[in-house]
Amino acid sequence: VTGVQTCALPIYSKYDKMRRGEIEYNEQEKKGWILFREHCASCHTEPLMSDNSYRVIGLPLDTALRDSGRARVTGRPADYAAFKVPSLRNVARTYPYMHDGRFRTLKMVLDFYRKGTVLTHDPALESARTLSESDAQDIITFLGTLTDTSFVRDRRFADPKWY
Fold first, then answer.
1. Rounded Cα–Cα distance for residues 147 and 54 (Å)
2. Which end of the chain is less enclosed by CB atoms within 10 A, N or C?
3. Is the distance from CB of 19 to CB of 30 less than 8 angstroms?
4. CA 22, CA 11: separation in Å to the nearest integer?
5. Higher pLDDT, 29 or 152
6. Which pLDDT tens digit goes with each residue over 22-40?
7. SS3 annotation, the chain
8. pTM above 0.90?
């Protein structure tokens, strides 16, 4: 198709190198990837690690923010407390987590999903309740493989005030 531009940037995360067959995961990364695909990939679909949908995950709303989620835009009650599923690319470097930044670590995020949620939530989250502490750590290790250090250090994408 003429006139369509594609991203010419190389992708150097460990995940992408593994997908291209250039490297292998260690055992913990591999286990984490398998667990991620089983428990997380229904919303965080590969390779972008997001399905770009809006989901109600049961996160208790911060009443000070008065944030009703997607419903603020659509006006639909079904969209109340629905937030966009973010990409997990470079997630190990993008804290704080959740739309309002309430969690400082990926462990806190996984603990939230493992221990259940308060509000009505998406059924896709049910399997996360079966994750053990060790499973959660393996997933966090896998999430580290989504970091592309060459991208995050590329001056072309930095805040201009830093240079």
1. 24
2. N
3. no
4. 12
5. 29
6. 999 999 999 999 999 999 9
7. CCCCCCCCCCCCCHHHHHHCCCCCCCHHHHHHHHHHHHHCCCCCCCCCCCCCCEEECCCCCCCCCCCCECHHHHCCHHHCCEEECCCCCCHHHCCCECCCCCECCHHHHHHHHHCCCCCCCCHHHHHHHHCCHHHHHHHHHHHHCCCCHHHHCCHHHCCHHHC
8. no
Q: Which two tokens stand for residue 132?
A: 């053990």
Give the model's pLDDT for residue 19.
94
| pLDDT value of position 88 | 97
> What whole-number distance in Å separates Cα of residue 5 and Cα of residue 7?
7
Question: Would you state the pLDDT for residue 53?
Answer: 95
